[in-house]
Each structure stands twice: as C-alpha cells, then as structure tokens.
Amino acid sequence: MTGTVGLEPLHRHALIRTSNAEVLRDLAGRKLGAERVDLRHAERFEAVVNLIELETIGLAFGTTTCDMVSDHRPAAFMRVQIATKGRAISCARGEATDVTEHQFAVAPAGMPWQMACQGGHRRLTLRLDPTALRQRLTALVGVQPRTDYGIESAIPAADPQAGSLLRLLDFLTTQLSEQDAAFPAAVYRELEDAVQVAFLCASRHRFRDMLIDPAPMPDFGLVKRLEDYIEANWREPITVERLAHEAGVSARSIFRVFERVRGYSPMAFAKAVRLRRAHAMLRSGDPSMTVAAAAAACNFTNAGHFARYYRATFGELPSTTAARAGRS
Fold first, then answer.
1. Which residue ranges make up each domain of the chain?
2. What percent of the chain has pLDDT over 70?
3. Could you tell me the pTM of the whole model?
C-alpha cells in the first residue's frame, strides 16, 4: 500500500499513536475490541492504528515496532488482513493463518480472534459487513447463499483476483489518505461495491467458480434497457446489486452481455455518461461552474483522474472547455 509518501496509509484517520503500553491496552480495548494485548521486547516501542469506517466496509492500517499478541472479542464484521511488510499470524476457529506479503488472511465475523505480529509488521485490514457481502454475492450469482458459504481463511497474494483487490484497496487508501474533502455519497457506494465484488472473486468459497466462469448470455436488448436506466439515474450510485435487481438476471450475466454487445462494462458506460454531463456543465458558461464543481457534481473524486478521462474523451482538458465557455 503506497498511501502518501513519507506518511502511513490512512494517516488522516488516526486512531492510536502511542509509546505507552497501558495507553495502548486501554485504547485497543475500547476501540478495537481487544481483551488482551501483550508486548514483547517493548522497552521502547511505537504503535500506530489508523481507521476509517464507510457504510459497508472499513479500512485500517496498523503497525508496532515490537512483537505483539492481542486477543479480540467477536465482532460484527469480517476481517481481511493484508501484510505490506513483515509477518503476523491470524488465529480464528482454531486455525492459524500466516499474514505475509505472499498471503492474505480472512477471519470470520462473530467469533473470537487472535493476532500475533512480529515487530515492524505493517498491515492493512479490510473490514467487511457479512450481510452486505452476502447480498452482493446473491446479486452476482443469482442464488441465495446460506449464512456460512465456506470462505477459507487464506488467499494467495499471487492470485490475479487477489492482485485486483489489492490494487483497488491501494487506490481507495490513497484517496482517503490524500484528500480533505468528503467524496460524493454515490462514489463511496460504488467503491465499496467494487471492493466487495473483488473480495468475493479473490476469496475461496463454494460460489467462486460461478463468479469466475462464464455465465449464460441474456437477451441483447437488456443492454439498451440498462443503458437507459443508467442515463436516468446517473447521479445515484450505480451498483452491481442495483443493476441486477433492475435487470432480473445475475450481475455476471450483465457484465458478459455488455462486453459482448458493447465491448465495455456497465460501469464504464456510467463513467461516460457522467463525463458527458460534466462536459455540458463546463460548456454552459455559468461562472460558478468550475472544473472542481463539475467533477464533484458528476461523482469524480480525483481531479487528476477526472482531467485524464475528460481529455481522453473530448480531446482537451476540462479547464480549456471552461475557459472557452467563459470567453464566449
């Protein structure tokens, strides 16, 4: 995880930063559900935890300069531990799973959990709401899974799907570390949706093959119907769940028919619609419609990415469009 150069990931969302063992135990107990925190070789140490909670996911960064073992009470969320440096061990359901740069570890919700970290270990923790995750899986495969659908405790980091999840989390972590302003609600929803889908594709469970393998091809007319739906609802979150509900087929079928008919995904179409809306706003000549205002109104969170997408689509920077509209 890159984050802001020279600073820890999610540094704008600091939860714990201390070199006092008793302070760490108190804060970890009250804010992280830790029943016990044991430190080893802790004559001089520093512990850092940064945490942000969104609607259906949470992201945390943690590191200690000394060896540490912590026991945690059952939590309402699932934990995915991703090491960026060093080694730790995640223990849940009587099973120990290494957390290294070569392997992620998954700890289930509703069960006690233990973490043992080497000094200098750095990791990102993804928190997932199991109810929201199950709803997302239902939308993807068109089957209502049971509460426990067999998610395994380890994910190989070399798996291409795990790489996709890691890149998505890297992007989201960087944005949350760098930007002062809150994202539009629709952007948060879509990013959370993407993280959940990426996790379901990367993790090992009994529905994984249904996510990865091709799905039956729905009627081609579905593409136009969903494009009309996206055009009419472009300001709102365009999520996998919402599209699947509107279409009456699984999300994997939607993505497959879009790729076959159009050569792009429904999310790419939603981005194109929003770029057209931003273009119209900047051409309006309204002096209050700045580039930043148009980007925010159309659910683009990163000014650099917005400018790059805009230029690739319209052949000029958004500032050029706005300046020309102002002159005319």
1. 1-213, 269-327
2. 94
3. 0.73
Looking up tokens 């995750």 gives 133
> What are the DSSP calls for 219-262, one per residue?
-THHHHHHHHHHHHTTTS---HHHHHHHHTS-HHHHHHHHHHHT
> Is residue 241 within 8 Å of residue 196, measured between CB atoms?
no
CB-CB neighbours of 63 under 10 Å: 21
What's the CA gap between 305 and 119, in Å, rounded? 37
> Which helix (H) or strand (E) element contains residue 201?
helix 185-202
* Mean pLDDT within 7-14: 89
Query: Cβ distance 110 to 57 under 8 Å?
Result: no
CATH number of 1-213: 2.60.120.10
The CA–CA distances, whole Å, from 54 to 28, 51, 111, 158, 180 equal 20, 10, 22, 27, 16
How distant, in Å, are the alpha carbons of 6, 20, 25, 249, 321 from that of 87?
Answer: 22, 23, 21, 42, 51
**Nearest of 148, 146, 150, 152 to residue 95 by alpha carbon:** 152
- Please provide the average confidence, as pLDDT, over all residues in the chain: 89
Please say if the pLDDT value at position 75 is more than 90.
Answer: yes
Q: pLDDT tens digits, residue range 76-120?
A: 999 999 999 999 999 998 899 999 999 999 999 999 999 999 999
Q: For the domain 269-327, what is the CATH superfamily, name and number?
A: Homeodomain-like (1.10.10.60)
